[in-house]
Request: fold
Amino acid sequence: MRTSWQPDVSLETLRLRAQWLKQIREFFDSRQVLEVETPVLSPASVPDPNIESLQTRVNQQRQYLQTSPELYMKRLLAAGSGPIYQISRVFRDGEIGRLHNPEFTLVEWYQPGYSQRQLIDEVTELVIGLCGLHHALTPVQLISYSELFQDHAGINPLRQDWAELDRYCQAKQLQCPVDNDDWSVAMDWLLALVIQPAMQGLVFVVDYPAAQASLARLDPDNPAIARRFELFINGVEMANGFEELTDAAQQRQRFMQENRDRKSMGMQEIALDEKFLAALEAGFPETSGVALGLDRLLMWKTGSEKVQEVMSFGYTD
Reply:
């Protein structure tokens, strides 16, 4: 049996990717946003149970391959770096499929002093500049998480009404996870199975439930929601952004709760990044940040069937 050594990407897509990298750097350079590099290996990681880190060992000490450059970049922000960005290789275990590769590229950036809406406008400008979407997907849609669920499923995701979800599932003849006591898991399931396939165009979803705040700050006027947004193009998630949480004690509590969640799910607990928490404690500027999946965006632009087709060499078993 002959082993194929050929790359997965076409030369045309390879050239487009190179052009995009140039455009991204020009975009941020024109805004005086500093390009940085941070370590790929770290002795700690984010304990989010929805993300599984790849691990290795250095000098017999466990190290995590970064799932995002976020924690190191925030330490730079706390040290006074000002606006920064990074085009970063990141790694996540257990994520293999048409839209997933265990190694992929994020464009991640942070803008001190920006609100969520200001950052959404900047993401829009970058995406339209790269993809030429002036006519294809505009005008841009902005909708709250609650409105999205109510419009597509008639369910209020903030009310956590399991009976309401059960009635919806029965009416649609769906095997909903109503026996799961984690409401966020059920909403993620409904979003992926029912709502995302119905989404068209370039859509920013804002005001996520507090339970899905991750590293985002809560809305001071409504602590039931977080200052978090996601960008979808034709139902595919492209970017995830926050008004960043600056409270070290609250962040520690969230990390500890996530580790408890991991333990209850039979997952390994993750070492907390004490240096990151110390940076928050020392003083972190009011900042908004976002991570944009470069490979998925390139996949959409080229009409590729799977994300590996826009990578020089995608993962193979």
